[in-house]
């Protein structure tokens, strides 16, 4: 893919703090507000092409599962060949039992919108499969268990083989809601006695529930047949790890997601174009130096691993 001058740059930014709930986070809205500035000032995004969804008090559009997917659909539907699409999510993630036949013990990744209407790896695969020719779709997911969030995307930088025994320098909250807590929440809402999360989601959200649960298994198998695509995932951690959200009581009031902050630090320190691979490797180093035990990963094609992050033009900030 080549990003040509004049092509659109479109973004959906989602920050969920879950205020006044048992799952409250503190830095997620700050993460996406900071990223919005970076997109405009460094990468040439037009403010009018950035859709922001947060659960801050007074927000016009709350980041429910349906609203997030509608925003992503709008972005994909208006994209043309060569356009650059970006989705930044900062909030909770979770792992759910796989629905794929023959994988009874496998767990799949999902993000947790404000209403718990899970958006899964299958939903993101569906979005990538719908991209216009030579348009790119980059996800930066600052959430726990975010590795593998695009179903069947190729791993370029994955599980760390180096043990990290560093003690965290800060008190932080993990950006995860355990599957058991999500199941308990829906059991109280639906009144249905089942451990099948798909049953609860379909009962609660109907057609707005994830494709993972509403699609026939034969249809889901079609996602396995995809060839090289333009999906790019920068995950805040490995599938089995947690991403950190800073606790304001321990940081003097400064709150942020560790991975989002690491990426923004890397971009601030290196103004020229950086490849997707470089952004992930450098972010790992920033996190390790700060004492965080999480390992960002990269999932995409071999070619896209070495293309510029968000296709930054050579003339921008160089």
From TrEMBL:
Question: Where does the Peptidase C14 caspase domain lie?
Answer: 8-301
The molecular function terms in GO held by this entry are:
cysteine-type endopeptidase activity
Give a GO biological-process term.
Answer: proteolysis
Which InterPro entries would you find in this protein's record? Caspase-like_dom_sf, Metacaspase, Pept_C14_caspase
Signal peptide residues are none
The record's Gene Ontology cellular component field reads: cytoplasm
| Coiled-coil regions listed | none
- A Pfam family the protein falls into: Peptidase_C14
Family label: Belongs to the peptidase C14B family.
The name on file for this protein is: Peptidase C14 caspase domain-containing protein
Native organism: Carya illinoinensis
């Amino acid at each position: 893919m080549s990003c040509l001058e004049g092509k659109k740059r479109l973004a959906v930014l989602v920050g969920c703090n879950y205020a006044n709930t048992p799952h409250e986070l503190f830095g997620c809205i700050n993460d996406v507000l900071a990223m919005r500035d970076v997109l405009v000032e460094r990468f040439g995004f037009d403010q009018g092409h950035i859709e922001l969804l947060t659960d801050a008090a007074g927000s016009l559009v709350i980041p429910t599962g349906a609203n997030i997917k509608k925003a992503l659909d709008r972005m994909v539907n208006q994209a043309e060949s060569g356009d650059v699409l970006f989705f930044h999510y900062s909030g909770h993630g979770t792992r759910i039992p796989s629905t794929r036949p023959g994988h009874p013990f496998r767990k799949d990744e999902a993000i947790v919108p404000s209403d718990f209407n899970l958006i899964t790896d299958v939903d993101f695969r569906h979005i990538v499969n719908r991209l216009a020719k030579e348009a790119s779709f980059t996800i930066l997911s600052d959430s726990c268990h975010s590795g593998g969030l695009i179903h069947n995307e190729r791993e370029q930088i994955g599980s760390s083989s180096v043990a990290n025994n560093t003690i965290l320098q800060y008190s932080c909250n993990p950006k995860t809601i355990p599957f058991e807590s999500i199941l308990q929440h829906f059991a109280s809402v639906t009144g249905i006695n089942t451990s099948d999360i798909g049953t609860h989601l379909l009962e609660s959200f109907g057609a707005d529930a994830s494709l993972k649960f509403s699609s026939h298994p034969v249809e889901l198998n079609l996602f396995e047949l995809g060839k090289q695509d333009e999906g790019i995932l920068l995950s805040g951690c490995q599938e089995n790890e947690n991403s950190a959200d800073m606790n304001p009581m321990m940081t003097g009031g400064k709150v942020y997601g560790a991975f989002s902050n690491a990426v923004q630090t890397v971009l601030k320190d290196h103004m020229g174009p950086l490849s997707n691979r470089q952004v992930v490797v450098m972010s790992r180093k920033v996190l390790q130096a700060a004492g965080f035990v999480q390992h960002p990963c990269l999932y995409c094609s071999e070619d896209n691993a070495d293309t510029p992050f968000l296709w930054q033009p050579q003339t921008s900030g160089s």
